[in-house]
Amino acid sequence: MKRISLIAAVLFSSLSGYSQGSPDYGSGLKFNLKEDGSKYLRVLAWNQIWFRSSDMNPGTTINGEEASSSTDIGNRRLRILLHAQLSPRYMIVTHFGINNQTFTNGGAAGTTGTGGYGQGKKPGLFFHDAWNEYAVVVPQADQKFSLSLGGGLHYYMGLSRMTMASTLNFLTVDAPIFNWPLIENSDQFARQGGLFAKGKYGKFEYRLSYNKPFATNLAPVDAPTSDVAVAVDNSGNTKWSKAGYFEYQFLDVESNLLPYKVGSYLGTKKVFNIGAGFYNAPDATRTSVAGNVGKHDITLLSADVFVDMPIGKPEKKMAVTAYSVFYNYDFGPNYLRNLGIMNVGTATADPAYTGDRALAGAGNLQPMMGTGNIWYTQAGILLPTSEEKPKVRIQPYGAYTYKNFEALDKSSSQFDIGANFFLDGHHAKITTQYSTRPVYITPNKVESLKGEFTVQLQIYL
C-alpha cells in the first residue's frame, strides 16, 4: 500500500504539472496497464499554429521577389509525446513530431520548386526525445533524497530553467531561442545523446548530464591576426560535454518526473525558485589565424529566478508570473550566430540592388547568440475574474532582452509585448504578441528595430 500511495502521489504531481489552469482536464489521455496505476502509458499531443505579419530585413527576397514585409501561416510545432511507467523504477520516454513548416520551407529534405514535393511540403517526422530511466532511489514521503539515472537522446541539458522549458505552457508566445544556445548545431533540436542523473534533496533539485555532442564541421575563415579571428562550430573528433542545473525551490516543490520546466502555472501553485547552471564542451569551435588553426572550448553559464503564485483575493483568481535569467556565453573569439524563427526570406541576388543589407542576413534573421552576455526578463499577470468558470481568462505580459556580444561593437535591446487568452488553461489558448528585433548594418550601426506580430492557436491534450 505504501508503494501504491507513492505512485499515486507521483502521478498526481506530474498530472498537475500538465493541467495548468484547466479544472476540466483531469488525467488527460492516460492508459492504466494495472488497476493500481503502477503501470501506465501517458500520451500528449499538441499543435501550435502561427499567423504572422513580419517586417523583413533590408535586402530580402521571398520566392524570387523582393519583399519588405510578409504575412504567412505556419506550423510552429506539431508533436506527440509518450511516456510509460513500467514499474515504480522504470520509465521510457518517446517524443516525436515536426517544427517550423511554412509556405516556403520546413519541408522534407530535397523538397524544392513546384509539385507534390515542392518547397515547404511533407516534412519528415523525427525524434526529439528517446530515453530510458531507472530510479535508483525512489522518492518517498518519509525521505528527502531521490536519484534517477537515464540515457538516450534527452533534454537534461542543464544551463537554465528555460533551456529545459516545456513548450506547452510558455508565458510568452515562444522561448527567446538563445536559451537553446546549441540549437541544431551540436544538438538535435535542443537535445544531445548521453547519460543523465536527476533528483532532489528536500527543496533542492539537481540535474547533471554527460553527453556526446553531434559533430560539427564548419570551416573557419583565415584571419590575418587573432583579434579579428572568428570562431565557428567545428568539433572534429567530438569530445564529451558536461552540463548541469541546480535549483532551490523555496515554496511549493515542482515535479521532476519529466525534464520540462513549466513557464506559467496560472496560480495553481506557489513557486519561488533560484537556479544556476552550466554547459562545457572541450575543443568544440575553431579559428584560423595566418593558416594556424586553434581550438576553443564552449563554456556557457547562467543564473535565474522564477516566481509564479496567486495574488489578491482568492475569489478573483489572479496570479503573477515572472522569470529573469543572465547568460554568460563563451564559444570562442568573436563567435556570432544569426537565427530567425520560421524564416521565409532569402537574400536578394539582384545585382541592381544597391540598398543596405542586414548584417544578420535576410528575412527575420537577427544576432541570436554569441560570445558575450545576455539578460532576459519576462513578466505577466493573470487578470481577475468574478465568474466561477469564465469563458476566457486574459494574461497580458511583456519581455525585455539585452544582448552584448564580442563580435558587435554596439549592444542591443529588444522587447516583446502580448497577451494570452485562455479558453481552457494552456490546453486551449490564443496568444498575440508584437516583437522587435535589432537590424545591424555594420557591427557598430543598428539601423532600426524591425517588428513582427504573431497570433498563435495552441491546443494540447
TrEMBL record:
Keywords: Signal. It comes from the Bacteria. Residues 1-21 form the signal peptide. This is Porin.
